[in-house]
Amino acid sequence: MNKIFILGPGPSCLTPENIKTITKVKNSNIPIFAFQKTFPYCVDYFGITPDYWTYYDPNGSIPGLRYISNNPDIKTNVILPSTVDGEDIEQFKRYCPTGGSTSLESTPRGWSEYCDLLSRVKNRNNIQYVEADTIFRVEKEDKQKFKSVNGNLEHSLRLGKVFFGTSIDFSLPNVGAENKLSMAVLPVVRHLGFTEIYVIGFDGLSGRFYQHMEPTDSRTKSYVGQYRYLDVWKNNQNKINLKIYSLNPNCSIVKRAGIEYVDVDRIL
């Protein structure tokens, strides 16, 4: 089995028990995957330089890209989806839900700083480009294909690339209402070929473990803790050869989504 440890941004990472778990994983040979602003703050908080790092929203990449730009010898494999590899913000918005964008659009110099940082690092050996698409683009541009790919993890559109977004429910006020665990992280690690996923820090709680470093980034949308569509991944684990486990017994993905808890000592 091909194992990987997923470190999320949730504040539960700072509980004594979860710090012990994170430390055990850090000292093991299991690769560690960080998402968006989890890196580089996982370096400061846990002494972890992840083996893999990626992002879906360019806004979530700025601290990480700054860190990589200032640390040219870093070995972290940066997974760069094609959806965020471009200087045209309108092109990025093509892959967002209708009317969606990145908050960098309204941040002074936000998008220009992103493009500048990306240009500094994108030719390094640790940058791994991956073809990517989103369910939001398909829904906007090809209604017929959307009907067949919506909620179908085995659809051919999802194969051979990173495909962000599990499903869209138009009865909801926010059609993009999906936790980033199922919407972005699982598609990436699936594409990378990992088959056993061990998660901590995607807890659905308000705030971030690094929120005193980024006080304006501590907001958590109400739908995050609902783990909408995570059941699609759980129910298809055998079909797609991707087992998902929680390393935190008290996490909402265990209590609400029914993801199996496993003690870290069993996998080390």
List the helices and strands and how they pair.
Layout: E1 3-7, H1 16-26, E2 32-35, H2 38-46, E3 52-54, H3 62-70, E4 77-81, H4 89-93, H5 110-121, E5 127-130, E6 132-134, H6 135-141, H7 143-149, E7 162-164, H8 180-192, E8 196-200, H9 230-235, H10 237-240, E9 243-246, H11 252-255, E10 260-261
Parallel strand pairs: 1-2, 1-8, 2-3, 3-4, 4-5, 6-7, 8-9, 9-10
Helix pairs in contact: 3-5, 6-7
Provide a descriptive summary of the structure in words.
The protein has 268 residues and is an alpha/beta fold. 32% of the residues lie in helices and 14% in strands. It has 11 helices and 10 strands. The strands form 2 sheets. Strands 5-4-3-2-1-8-9-10 form an 8-stranded parallel β-sheet, with helices on both faces. Strand 9, helix 11 and strand 10 (260-261) form a beta-alpha-beta unit. The protein is globular, with a radius of gyration of 18 Å. It starts with a strand and ends in a 7-residue tail after the last strand. 40% of the residues are buried.
